[in-house]
Amino acid sequence: MKNTFLIRALSVALMALCLAFTGLAGCVGGDMATVTIKINHPNFDQTYSPSFFDRVIAFFSLSSRAEAGNLPQGLEFERIRLFVTGPTIAPIRTQIPMSEGAITLSVPSGKNILFRVKADGMGGIDNPTYDYAGEFTTTLVPGESKEIAIEMRPAIYMGGYKGEDACYWINGTFHPLGANCSINDLTVFNNTVYSAGYLDEINWQASYWTNQDSYGLDDGSASSIFVTSENIYIGVNTEHNGSGYYITGDYKKLTDSGGYVNSISVYNGKVYVCGSDSGNSVYWIDGKKTEIGDSLDNQLTGMFIWRGDVYLSGNTQNQDSFRPCYFKNTKRYYLEDESTPASATGIVVAEGDVYVSGYIKIETDRYQACYWKNGNRIDMPLDHPDYSSSMANAIAVKDGDVYLAGYFQASNDFSEAACFWKNGTRFDLDDDEVNGSSASCLFVY
Fold it and tell me: How does strand 145-151 pair with strand 32-40?
């Protein structure tokens, strides 16, 4: 009797287990899609093909370990992260095993699902590796299985100078633009590097570059650049035609001589510009001006638009020094008290948090790079706190990582050398301590 009961119980259990696996397969194919992400880069060996058991594991853990493959050759990364976002899904964050370069996961179906991969470089003075990233947007149909190969490309772009050459760096690789010119801003669109600045031949000529090809605009200097799929927007300060911006060749004047344009951005089809006009610090939205104070007291250094609000970095004159601050629309927030000499150089907003780059003054001719997050200052370490110096000229935040571009200086006996920081770790772009170099603008893909 007991044996009969055990046999029946075992049969029921086996049937339940089969139904569970069958139902699981049906559930995965219900509102979910199974996606295999592979990293498409010559330094990664991809040998992964998911099994049904992998997909079962993926359903429970949102990821499955790929089968063993060869280690990446040539590049060394700290980790490889995967971010999955979409209009109607909760964000998914996980890591891709570095030994395989592939992962399978179960993702809710829907439109405009973005898969972003980030390979985090390894810092250090000798032979550092830099970040690589790739993105792919797709529609997922319930029950489908899809394999996506994501193209990886360099993630860190900076503009500045090295010796007598204006230049930009892509993941540390130097690209000269030539002598007698300067870069004030840089962005990247569709794998093309766009820079804004000036050529100094007979007179300054406001110019922009696509990669290493230059295009003249007017006498003066180009201060900023923003690129969309339809247009190139360039903020300029001209010698004879005031200050304003170009939209793919057409000039829009905002202020007469005496004012200036500092930054330009586009949000929801509207053009945002900040600068000064008639002695006041201002910003414009599609040409409509908003004043935020006396420009002699409030010098604007950067702008970022987040959910329609205008965030501006700047400095307020404080006797013989500056007091860093930022504005949300027209409301000012100080970053330091009056006893701490410091300057703000740029601003960005990420997930509602406000980040401002800059530096504090340690003593005469010595500074320390830093940034403020929601008003709290984070200092970048100095090699030798008693005599080295550094500045942060620009800031970007991507994938939760904070990047600063600027320079360090071993001591006053040496010239500044271009560098950037990622989450406090310094990456050197140049080791020429005689001719000097510095990074002044930054874009992170």
Answer: parallel
Which of 41, 43, 65, 35 has the alpha carbon at shortest distance from 134? 41
Q: What is the pLDDT of residues 154-185, one digit of tens each?
A: 999 999 999 989 999 999 999 999 898 999 99
CATH code: domain of residue 72: 2.60.40
What total number of domains does the chain contain? 2
Position of tokens 């970022």?
A: 304
CA atoms within 13 A on the CB side of 413: 1
Helix (H, G, I), strand (E, B) or coil at 61: helix
Domain that holds residue 108: 31-153
First to last CA, the chain: 70
Report pLDDT digits (tens) over 247-288. 998 999 999 877 899 999 999 999 999 999 988 899 999 999
Distance CA 35, CA 62 (A): 10
Examine the domain organization and report whether 195 and 148 are in the same domain. Answer: no
Yes or no: say if 237 and 220 are a contact pair by the CB < 8 Å rule.
yes
250: number of Cβ within 10 Å: 8
The answer to whether the beta carbons of residues 87 and 112 sit under 8 Å apart is yes
